[in-house]
């Protein structure tokens, strides 16, 4: 997204989503920069332009900033996003910000990082990915990991398939659903009352 390699789709619906992700990426990059330094990118509209300006102005590697960005990238959880596109948009933004401080992450490492965080609905997708790799290795063939962009496309298609099958609901992450299922119902705790069918206590004679 921030590299300018993704072109605007011709389909109107996809084009609207593309423009929305462009704005999100532009906003995320802007928020990652100190307010005192945002004047450098104030007049730039696209994330590609912003990244080029950042690389030009902040070319010196910042160890602390690189550590913060890398930590944020590694701890980014897809289950905290309403859809896969939003998660990948933030993930790609952090990736390119890392490139801006001269830290390049290998595509394969990024892919495996995402695979380990996908929820139960993606279990078949994750299993197929690993089994394909193992099949190549077991046959003595060289396994070539897919590019990060092609992996992202596959993940988005998998989300669309799961939505079509009714196995995934956008806006409800698997972790939140699981937490709701495990949380005890403490709103209306039941009170214990004595049994009504047992023998009544003898109160003795009643006098007028």
Please supply descriptive tags for the structure shown above.
mainly alpha, 2 domains, 8 helices, 54% helix, 0% strand
Describe it.
The longest helix has 20 residues, at 12-31. Helix 1 (12-31) packs across helix 4 and helix 3 packs antiparallel against helix 4 (84-100). 54% of the residues lie in helices and 0% in strands. The chain has eight helices and no strands. The chain starts with 11 loop residues before the first helix and ends in a 26-residue tail after the last helix.
Class computed from helices, strands and strand pairing: mainly alpha
For the secondary structure, the number of strands is 0
Number of helices: 8
Report the helical percentage: 40-55%
- Beta-strand content: under 5%
Termini separation (Å)?
92 Å
Whole-angstrom Rg? 27 Å
Number of domains: 2
Indicate the mean pLDDT.
78
Shape call:
globular
Task: Spell out the helices and strands N to C.
Answer: HHHHHHHH
Low-confidence residue ranges: 173-183
Give a quick account of the main beta sheet: strands, pairing sense, barrel closure.
Answer: none
Summarize the structure.
54% of the residues lie in helices and 0% in strands. With 208 residues, it is mostly helical.
List the helices and strands and how they pair.
Blueprint: H1 12-31, H2 47-57, H3 63-75, H4 84-100, H5 107-115, H6 123-138, H7 148-164, H8 174-182
Helix pairs in contact: 1-4, 3-4
